[in-house]
Design brief:
The protein has one domain. It has seven helices and no strands. The protein is mostly helical. The protein is 87% helix and 0% strand.
Length: 282
């Protein structure tokens, strides 16, 4: 075999080996990238499914609130229980957002692994990473809303606890059960103080803080009424009763439905952003 022929054969063999190596690199890299993209897709699907379930639960609670509001019968116990359920749901939702975000962060990090091997599939991996970024942004906004809703729910639970105390106190005063009334008044003050503290949440309209201030005045005047009754001071009793009636009348001027509409308007842009980001992720 001539030296020239031998050189040609060696060159061909080397070329074949190089071509096979390039093909193997490409196939292996694309397969590896496709696996990473597939895993990321599964994670995204799970996150979107969780979000749909949370939205459904939120819609169910909203329907219950509307049904209760339109019934024409005010029941602070039912209102309080619904808001407590609302707090529990939104707290659980926030925890779900944290877990889902951790899953997405892990999936995104996996897309950047073995970059020397996935060079040819970089465009697909970058596209998947962008989808994950949109999903994570949606989760961050949703968690902000959920955290705010927890504050809203806790406030209204405290408000309706105060309403329940007010009903019990009124019954006890009417039956001259002043010992029980005094105990209830202490409980009502605790609930009103809690509501006053919670009323400064960013999403709550300013009139709710004013409302709780007026409620505190009512509690104070109730205390004066009890003290006057205990002292058998008829003049002080009449003055305290007049103050209590004025306080109660003032509290009836607040339109809770209008306030709830303002709260919904506050959160609507956030949920619009969540929907937009999830649409881009999907």
């Amino acid at each position: 075999m001539s030296r020239r022929l031998l050189t040609t054969i060696v060159a061909i063999v080397i070329a074949v080996i190089v071509v096979i190596g390039i093909i193997g690199y490409a196939v292996t890299g694309l397969a590896y990238a496709q696996t990473r993209v597939g895993n990321a897709d599964k994670t995204l699907g799970t996150v979107i499914s969780h979000q749909n379930n949370i939205d459904s639960s939120f819609s169910d609670l909203s329907a219950k609130f509307k049904s209760l509001s339109s019934s024409g019968t005010f029941d602070p116990l039912q209102e309080r229980d619904l808001f407590q359920q609302f707090v529990a749901n939104e707290t659980a939702s926030a925890a779900t957002y944290d877990r889902d975000d951790a899953s997405l962060a892990s999936a995104r990090a996996s897309l950047g692994e073995q970059q020397w091997l996935t060079f040819l599939a970089r465009a697909n991996l970058d596209h998947e990473a962008t989808r994950i970024d949109h999903a994570r942004k949606a989760l961050a906004i949703a968690k902000t809303a959920a955290t705010g809703y927890v504050q809203v729910g806790r406030f209204f639970a405290a408000l309706y606890d105060s309403e329940l105390d007010f009903q019990a106190f009124s019954t006890q005063i009417a039956t001259a059960d002043f010992g029980a009334a005094n105990t209830t008044l202490g409980t009502m003050k605790t609930h009103v103080d809690k509501g006053l503290q919670l009323s400064t949440a960013p999403s709550l309209p300013a009139e709710l803080h004013t409302l709780m201030g007026d409620f505190e005045t009512l509690v104070s005047d109730f205390s004066k009424l009890l003290a006057a009754a205990a002292a058998n001071d008829d003049t002080a009793v009449v003055n305290a009763e007049n103050s209590v009636q004025a306080d109660a009348s003032k509290l009836t001027t607040y339109k809770i439905d209008d306030i709830m509409a303002k709260i919904a308007a506050y959160y609507r842009p956030l949920y619009d952003q969540v929907s937009s980001e999830l649409a881009r992720a999907a």
